[in-house]
Give the backbone structure.
Amino acid sequence: MGIEKLILSNASGGVNPKYKVGDLMILDDHINLMGTNPLIGKNEEELGTRFPDMGEPYDKGMIAKAKAVADKNDFTCHIGTYAAVTGPTFETRAEYRYIKIIGADCVGMSTVPENIIARHMNLPVFAISIITDLGGGDHLEVITHEEVLKVANEAEKKNDSYYQRTYY
Ligand code: HPA
């Protein structure tokens, strides 16, 4: 389609104990726990190689730029690792614990397949996550889709005022 960069956003559950509901996290890596990979099957050689490198799944340049803009505007914006699961269930307490132990900072149900497809064709990717709920540790609140949407919508408003204050 001729695009030169892919920008993705998602909602996720924070497992890093420093994260709070409403924080943003720029993805600099991910763990694919979806049990599948969108490149399984015949490789489209004209798009990319059979065994793509995944050493820089998210573009370092775009991460640095976004972090600088967030810092300038006093936005709480972490940089971390996103674990992708299929859902549609939210995680059990043991699963949140496991996701934290294996090195993720948050968990969600998207973004990784899109990232893999884009990186296969060497397209730079930027992705950012809104932490809509907290899993693991002492966070025993019931998580609902409604709550996830509510926090995500509030974050969108925050983003609007942020764009009004930032000059490019
Ligand atoms: N787990 C998985 N996906 C999610 C979550 C979560 O806690 N929050 C928003 N999407």
Q: What stands out?
A: The pocket of hypoxanthine is lined by residues 11-13, 87, 90-91, 107-109, 132-133, 135, 143, 148 (CB under 6 Å).
